[in-house]
């Protein structure tokens, strides 16, 4: 019998603790976390920590004896815990308090049940099932592709580019603008039953941008979000243009596209677009250039100094006779190789021999004499 009383006492204690946690959780939902800390939605981690220190000192039970101070202190601590955890913060920003609770249930109970099933599960009661059966695959807003125009020199050297990007972010208090609507089956999806004949009904799916989730609809003319679901936000981005990147290659910022209630932000992709160069032409890791040489250099040899994309100079020596459209390969003078291969591609030089338009009689005789050609009288 003593063991039975002890077990009952333990169950009662656990039940009371669970009700207290439920009460605190309900209190959290009453006020937006950002508003609770007195910060904006775009506040940095440093600003969040500063606001938390200030608010926690103000409502600390040892210093603030006013009624409700302890509960306020607990709310502030919970808000700080969520907003300083990147994963929880992202879930809260996209799905609000309810989405955060579902996430915590899935983490703690492998999917969870919600409601009273969560309460009684603390005492060992199992209602069956694993939950999550109605969970929908999370949708995302469209990805955004923006051309990034860069020079061949920038692709050879690599570069860091600072840009400003304007996107749509959720209204800070968007959760207060939701109302229940059972016809909403997901973001932008509305399903209703339509009678087509006596005793026959048809399920009709239609597009409705007011639907922001299952059973949730946006309330038009909401006072706390007068501008609608989203608002413009200007953000600064640093683009890391790596050496040797190829035209058409994307530089991706995950989750930076427009936000929308009930949806994950898509990705922002900057697509490398290579501008043409005055002299050099690129194909993969190799560079190509065409050089015009006079006939005398083609016959007698020459040396020529080239200036590369980064300004360094190198000399090419040709001792033999150069045919028209001859291609010479210079190893290691191409573009930096991508994909961890290291080194550089090659430079291919095409020689275009410039023949003189006319020759004097003396020049012709001199050339015949040097080259041993036969005169017209010998033909």
Protein described:
- The protein is of the alpha+beta class and about 375 residues long.
- The protein has nine helices and 13 strands.
- It has helices at about 1-30, 35, 45-60, 70-85, 85-110, 115-120, 150-155, 295-300, 360-370, and strands at about 145-150, 160-170, 180-195, 200-220, 230-240, 250-255, 270-275, 280-285, 285-295, 300-305, 315-320, 325-330, 345-355.
- Strands 8-9-13-12 form a four-stranded mixed β-sheet. A three-stranded mixed β-sheet has the order 1-7-6.
- The longest helix has 28 residues, at about 1-30.
- Residues about 1-10, about 10-30 and about 110-135 have low confidence and may be disordered.
Précis, in short:
By secondary structure, this protein is α+β, with helices and mostly antiparallel strands.
Pick out its properties.
single chain, 379 residues, alpha+beta, 4-stranded mixed beta sheet, 3-stranded mixed beta sheet, 9 helices, 31% helix, elongated
- Average predicted local confidence, pLDDT: 80
- Supply Rg: 36 Å
Shape, per Cα inertia axes = elongated
Q: What's the helix-strand series? A: HHHHHHEHEEEEEEEEHEEEEH
Q: Span between N and C termini?
A: 133 Å
* Main sheet specs: 4 strands, mixed
Strand content: 25-35%
**Percent helix:** 25-40%
| Separate helix tally | 9
Uncertain regions spanning at least 5 consecutive residues:
1-10, 12-30, 109-136
The neighbouring-strand order within the major sheet is 8-9-13-12
């Amino acid at each position: 019998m003593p063991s039975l009383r002890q077990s009952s006492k333990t169950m009662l204690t656990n039940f009371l603790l669970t009700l207290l946690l439920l009460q605190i959780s309900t209190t959290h939902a009453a006020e937006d976390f950002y508003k609770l800390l007195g910060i904006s939605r775009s506040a940095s981690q440093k600003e969040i920590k500063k606001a938390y220190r200030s608010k926690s000192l103000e409502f600390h039970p040892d210093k603030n004896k006013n009624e409700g101070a302890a509960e306020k202190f607990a709310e502030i601590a919970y808000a700080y815990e969520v907003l300083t955890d990147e994963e929880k913060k992202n879930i809260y920003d996209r799905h609000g308090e309810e989405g955060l609770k579902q996430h915590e249930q899935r983490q703690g109970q492998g999917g969870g049940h919600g409601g009273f099933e969560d309460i009684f599960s603390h005492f060992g009661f199992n209602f069956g099932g694993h939950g999550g059966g109605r969970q929908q695959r999370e949708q995302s807003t469209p990805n955004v592709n923006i051309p990034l125009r860069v020079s061949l020199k920038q692709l050879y050297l690599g570069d860091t580019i600072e840009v400003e990007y304007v996107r749509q972010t959720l209204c800070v208090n968007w959760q207060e603008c939701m109302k229940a609507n059972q016809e909403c089956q997901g973001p932008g999806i509305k399903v209703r039953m339509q009678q087509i004949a006596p005793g026959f009904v048809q399920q009709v799916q239609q597009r409705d941008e007011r639907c922001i989730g299952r059973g949730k609809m946006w309330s038009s003319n909401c006072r706390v979000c007068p501008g609608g679901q989203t608002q413009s936000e200007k953000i600064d981005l640093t683009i890391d243009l790596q050496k040797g990147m190829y035209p058409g290659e994307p530089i991706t910022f995950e989750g930076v596209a427009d936000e929308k209630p009930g949806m994950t932000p898509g990705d922002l992709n900057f697509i490398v677009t290579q501008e043409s160069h005055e002299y050099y032409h690129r194909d993969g890791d190799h560079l190509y250039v065409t050089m015009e040489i006079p006939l005398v250099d083609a016959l007698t040899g020459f040396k020529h100094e080239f200036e590369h994309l980064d300004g360094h100079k190198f000399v090419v020596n040709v001792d033999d006779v150069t045919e028209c459209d001859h291609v010479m390969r210079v190893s290691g003078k191409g573009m930096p190789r991508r994909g961890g291969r290291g080194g550089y591609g090659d430079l291919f030089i095409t020689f275009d021999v410039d023949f003189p338009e006319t020759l004097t009689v003396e020049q012709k005789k001199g050339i015949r004499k040097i080259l041993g050609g036969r005169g017209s009288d010998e033909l």
